[in-house]
Structures are given as C-alpha cells and as structure tokens.
Please model this.
Amino acid sequence: MKNLLKISLFSLLFLSLACSEDNDTLTGNGTEGGLVDKATAAVTYPQGQAPTELLSSTFSIFQGNEKVEMVEVYKQFFGKVDVGTPDETIMSSNKALLTTVMMPLESQYETATIEYSYNDLISGLTFNGAPLSGSDLDLNIGDYWVLTFVSHLTNGDVHANVKATTTVTMACGSYLEGMYNLVVTITAGNGAGTVYNLPGEELTKLGGTRYKGTSIGPYNERGLISAGAQIAGVGLVFDDICGMDLLVSL
Model:
C-alpha cells in the first residue's frame, strides 16, 4: 500500500510540472497563464503619415470558466542610437499603457480590434533620456514598438501574456499616387536631347510601394510616341525605393 501511495504522489507531481511548463512567464503580481490566444504579429507604420492617422491590429482570447472582463494593452519602443557609428546599438523605452479594452463576456472566443496613431504610440514614453519626438521623421527605419497584453479576470486574477505580442515597425512611407506632368527626355540615339512634355500622367498605387503609370514613357515596341499621343495601358510598373529619387530608364 505504501508503494502505491508513493507512485500516486509522484504521478501527481509530474502532471503538475508538465502543466506549468506551458504557461506564460509573468512578472510582478500577475498570475501564471496565457489567456490571449492570438494577436496580430506585425503591423507596418509608414513613416511620414499624419500623426493622427490610425493603424489597427487585433487580439483574441479564449474564455474559460473564469471570464476575461478587461485587457490592458501596453507599449514599449525599441530604437537605434548612435546610428552609423561603431557605437550603434538598440535601446528601449519605458513601458506604458496604450489602451484598455472591455470584453463583452458573450462568446467563448472573443476577438477585439484596437486602433492607435503615432501620437498614441509615443505618449508617455521616454527614450534615451527624452520623450519620443512628435515627428516620426526623427525616428529610424526599422525602429519598432512591441505591444503586450494583460488580462483581468472576473475573479480578480491578472494574467500577463508574453507569447502573444504585436510588433509595429517603422517603414518607408510611399505617397506617390496622383496626377503628374510627365517630362520625357531622349538621351541617346536618334532624337537625343529631344524633350516631350506629356500632361495628365496618373500614378496608381498597386499596393505597398508599387505603382503603375498611365503611359510612362509612353513607349511601345516602336519607341516613344509623339507628345500628346499617350497610349493607355502601357504604363510602367515600378517600386518606390526608400530614400532614393525616382529615375526610370527605358
């Protein structure tokens, strides 16, 4: 009987350890557990957009016996300092509350959408000894924020979720879409030095940094078409490259 008792106690201990290894690691007064099931992994922040323009991301929770009634979303900034020098490194800001989401307690699986602007992302954060700049142009491409989630349950427990996070990364903004007066200059061959002025060239954004022109140059298999005779549908498709002037060679 004693041997059987020892085996039962060992089995219970092993089961307890096995379950604990799956929980998120917490700090402070949090309770172990991970109630945020999924979160948008990556969001791109296009540098140069209005500081009040909104980005969005989502997170989902699985409601157990005890319900999540509120989720706090925290933000922390990570950026490069001493850029271009041998001392270049990544530093982090303090962590601050971004927003609080009240959960409806209606479904077993809940998904919430949060929206935030550049002004929201920088508010309350101190980086390298100073508040983050009110202009995103002062930040570096590749700098980023990490959003983390803290769940508050109806029974008073608090769960910090470190496995489900959202990273908001500063990337090159691209804003070329619109109407242009196209100027085409022949630089070699017959007609070298001839300049064509072609009004009404429209750049349409195809997504990301890719655009299509109405007729650039306009060209076809015979070469440049005379001024004012643009051919619809033959426009060049090109990518806007961060930090470079647009130069198209055909």
About this structure: The chain is about 10% helix and 45% strand.
